[in-house]
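Fold this sequence, please.
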Amino acid sequence: MKNLIMLIALSLGSFTMYAGTHGKDSKRRAAASLEIYNNSHRSVLVELNGRIISETARGSYRISYLPPGKHQLTLLEVRRGPHRPRVIYKRLLRVRPGHEVSVRISRRGRVRVNVRKSVYCSHCGSYSYGSRNCTARFDDDYDDGYAVAMSPAGFHTLKASMRRATFESARKSIMRQALHRQYISSFQLRELLFLFDFESSRLEMARYAYGRLIDPQNISVIFDAFEYESSIRSFERFLAQR
C-alpha cells in the first residue's frame, strides 16, 4: 500500500507539471475535459496514458483541460490485502476539441461512457451543452436581473457539510436550507446528488432543486447520478408536468 501511495503521488506531480505547462495552450485550442463519477463503494485508481492520476472513492474527479486526441483510460479497482488492483475498464478514447467525456461507475461497478459537446459559460460559472448562451432564471433579488450560481467556495462548503452529515435526512435538510435563498447550476446539482446513498433521495432532491437552477436547459446532465433507468423516466415525467 505504501508503494501504491508513492506511485500516486509521483504520478500526480508529473501530471500537475504537464497541466501547468500546457494549460494556456489547451484553453486556446478549446481543450476537452474528462469527468469520472464513482457511484460505487469501491476505491478506484484512474490511469490515463499509463500514469495513475488519481485514486477516487465515492464522488467525482475532473480534468478540466485535456488535450484533444487519443487517450488510453484505465480504471482499476483497489482490493484489500495483497491482491493487485483489478482492471474494470480499459479503452482508447478519441477526444475531440470542446467535448467532455463523462465516465460513470455505477453502484454495481459497471462503467458507462458518454461524450458531449461542452461550452463554458462565464456568467453562471458552469459548462453547458449544445448552446453558447446561458439562459439564466430571472430573480428580483439581483440588480442585473439574473440569478447567479452558488460560488465555488460556497459550493465547496455545502458539499463538505453534507458529507459530514451521518444521516440521509440530515443531508436533505442541509441542501434545502442552502437552496432556500441560493441558486445552483445543473452541474452543481449533479455533484450534490452523488452525495446521497439512496436512489429515492436523489430523485426527491432533484425535483426539489429544479426550481433553483440557473440553467434548466442542461438538466439532462443530472441523469448520470441516477442508478436506474426508471428514475430517469420518473424525472422526465416530472419535467413534462411543469
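The longest strand covers residues 86-95. The chain has two domains: 2-117, 135-240.
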